[in-house]
Design goal:
The complex is a heterodimer of chains A (573) and B (95).
Chain A: H1 9-17, H2 44-48, H3 53-81, H4 92-127, H5 136-158, H6 172-176, H7 181-208, H8 221-253, H9 266-300, H10 307-320, H11 336-364, H12 373-396, H13 398-404, H14 408-438, H15 444-471, H16 485-515
Chain B: H1 9-28, H2 35-57, H3 65-89
Helix pairs in contact in B: 1-2
The chains are: A mainly alpha (573), B mainly alpha (95).
Chain lengths: 573, 95
């Protein structure tokens, strides 16, 4: 990797070619602002006791990256074990713990906080022109709750982990499992408060702290998506908390809530668990949908088609998300009538999701498309999200679900939503706002390479799993008939490509911190308040109170002659 | 609330209304309305009492419409939760 002769040229070029949008001053691109949040204070205390939403976002960024790596190690172990039909690496008991810890780490400590707590924390006040979130101390407390919760879970992990699956189904988890269920559940219980704090903070911030002129329908769709997410976080997370308390009471004191042997009802646990955990899927995917709206508008240089529909689709997804939990229990002894109701409601939630996808497509149509790295992720997201969503509809169909329940088809489906959807959105967001967060540009070549590897590796990992599941391979088994091996080998090969794809950004992001060209205010020529302040932003975000006299996504299309040609190395190294 | 009403009078009136309704609850417990109706009557009285507490003691009456929407939506949320779970429990066919 070598530096281009001039640091200034890439971003200056980008800025000059984007007529009619807010853009960076050319001189600024050459050097960072004198004062910004990263040099506002030094030393460990200035980070651990900070109430600056941007620094808290960075704290979250470091911690979720760590837990993503831990979850990834478990994923690697799972894929290695499944390379051969025999159980080579693990005993059955160990394998149970490995996939459980993979799920727990990825869902509760990576996916749920990933976009809201990292990108949302950093961007929400910037996007609405506020100095900080409404409750900065609560914001810091949320990170501590997250770390304490993670501490308990890590403790149980180091002492042998849990073997119940991330779903903690009773009565196995409450009566029979001989692992550290209580410590893990306690960790998740505490971690839930971090999620609730973030949600409360965002709701109040969006209601009360918008800049003058920033009406609800001028808000970026990222903010709408986070508003919807926060509603779920505040309303659903307490249900998980109380469910885990009941689980604890039954496990510790044999009070019969869920175990039929002492008068409980195991399906009640599933009702309570999924009343949180299905909406939790939307905590993971909704912020991602918001990110994609921002990226697509910026790199097609058009306003999002049907802005209000996309905004209300977020709210509709949040509301409908509360009504579909029973589709996890079609074969768990739920009544046939109830299953019918949930099946119909599940079909309904596809409508707002599809509204979003169609509106993005209509936005891209005749847009001035620029194939930047964030746009790679956004386009990848759209394809994978559609596959994940449509297979979700297949599983929501009663007859098909009986055949596919608890097979690899389900595993493939939710990985298409969570990895193909939520993580692609997270990676897209990281690449889109990295110049804002750090003030530096990263390698164009390597970021394109990693986006492509992630997309290819992901599909190679999880597409074979659809076929495997359809053929009857059950989930959570480490020994399988030999005829499944080819597909498992494909999947493991894909996982290794995926791992490389995820590892590369670690290097070029870190490299950019020291050697990357300065980004300037607005390297993409995007609209939105966050691009009007310096990069990295000053401690209080704006030097003067911004006034909003423009609509959301007020892109004026660049004339055809000035459109960006497709060049891989446009920004950065 | 646009302006706070510092008069104690409404609170005292609500307090006595709650006492009265509590007495009524006890009273109707001695009357047999037939199988579902005893429950319906008792729950209806409880609902009135809860509404009084929410409206007056919790100051929802006179609050901004945002507060009212929040209260209403949380009640709707709980109702949905119970209602949809009942589609399971009432249709399972065990007695």
């Amino acid at each position: 990797m070598s530096m281009p002769p001039s640091n200034m040229s890439p971003s200056a070029e980008a800025a000059s070619s984007q007529a009619g949008t807010t853009r960076s001053g050319l001189a600024e691109a050459a050097r960072p602002p004198r004062e910004h949040y990263l040099n506002a204070g030094y030393g460990i205390k200035s980070w651990l006791l900070t109430t600056d939403h941007k620094r808290i976002g960075i704290l979250y960024l470091l911690s979720v990256t760590f837990f993503f790596a831990i979850g990834g190690l478990y994923a690697t172990a799972i894929r290695l074990e499944l390379l051969t039909p025999q159980g080579d690496l693990f005993q059955p008991d160990t394998y149970n713990r490995v996939f459980t810890m993979h799920g727990v780490m990825m869902i509760f400590f990576f996916l749920i906080p990933s976009i809201p707590a990292v990108m949302g924390n950093f961007l929400l006040p910037l996007m609405i022109g506020a100095k900080d979130v409404a409750f900065p101390k609560l914001n810091l407390a949320s990170w501590y709750m997250y770390m304490i919760g993670a501490g308990f879970t890590m403790w149980s992990l180091m002492h042998g982990g849990v073997d119940t699956g991330w779903t903690f189904y009773t009565p196995f988890s409450s009566t029979y499992s001989n692992t550290y269920t209580t410590a893990t559940a306690l960790g998740i219980f505490i971690n839930g408060f971090s999620s609730i704090f973030t949600g409360v903070n965002f709701i109040v911030t969006i209601h009360r702290m918008r800049a003058p002129g920033l009406t609800w329908f001028r808000l970026p769709l990222f903010v709408w998506a986070h508003y919807a997410t926060s509603l779920i976080q505040v309303l659903a997370t307490p249900v998980l908390a109380i469910t885990l308390v009941l689980l604890f009471l039954e496990r510790a004191f044999r009070i019969g809530f869920f175990d039929p042997a002492i008068g409980g009802d195991p399906v009640l646990f599933q009702h309570l668990f999924w009343f949180y955990s299905h909406p939790a899927v939307y905590i993971m995917i909704l912020p991602s949908l918001g990110v994609i709206s921002e990226i697509i508008a910026a790199f097609t240089r058009k306003a999002i088609f049907g802005y209000k529909f996309v905004a209300f689709a977020s709210i509709a997804i949040a509301v409908f998300g509360f009504l579909v939990w029973g589709h996890h229990m079609f074969v768990s002894g739920e009544s046939a009538y109830s299953a019918l109701v949930f099946s119909v409601l599940t079909m309904l939630i596809a409508v707002p999701s599809a509204v979003k996808v169609f509106n993005w497509m209509a936005t891209i149509y005749r847009g001035s498309i620029e194939y930047s790295t964030p746009m790679f992720y956004a386009l990848g997201f759209m394809g994978l999200f559609v596959i994940g969503g449509l297979t979700g509809l297949m599983l929501g169909t009663l007859g098909i679900d009986v055949h596919l329940h608890d097979t690899y088809f389900v595993v493939a489906h939710f990985h298409y939503i969570m990895v193909g959807g939520a993580v692609m959105g997270y990676m897209g967001a990281l690449h889109f706002w990295w110049p804002k967060i750090t003030g530096r540009l990263y390698s164009g070549f390597f970021s394109h390479l990693s986006a492509l590897l992630v997309f290819l590796g992901f599909n190679l990992t999880f597409f074979p799993q659809f076929v495997l599941g359809y053929m009857g391979m059950p989930r959570r088994y480490h020994v399988y008939p030999e005829e499944f091996q080819v597909l498992h080998v494909l999947s493991t090969a894909g996982a290794s490509i995926l791992a490389v794809g995820y590892a590369i950004p670690l290097f070029y992001f870190l490299y950019s911190l020291k050697y990357g060209a300065y980004a300037g205010r607005n390297p993409w020529g995007a609209v939105g308040l966050e691009w009007q302040t310096t990069s990295p932003p000053p401690l209080h975000n704006f030097h003067e109170m911004p006034v909003v006299d423009f609509e959301a996504y007020e892109y004026k299309e660049a004339p055809v002659a000035e459109r960006q040609p497709y060049r891989v190395v446009k920004y950065g190294l | 609330m646009a302006e706070h009403n510092h008069s104690l009078k409404p609170y005292v009136m609500v307090l006595f209304a709650l006492f009265g309704l509590t007495a009524l609850t006890v009273g109707v417990a001695y009357v047999d309305f037939g199988h579902p109706w005893s429950d319906v009557v008792a729950l209806a009285i409880a609902l009135v009492k809860a509404s009084l507490v929410v409206a007056f003691f919790m100051h929802v009456k006179g609050s901004t419409s945002m507060v009212k929407i929040s209260v209403a939506s949380s009640i709707v949320g709980v109702l949905i939760f119970f209602m949809i779970i009942l589609t399971d429990y009432m249709a399972r066919g065990f007695s």
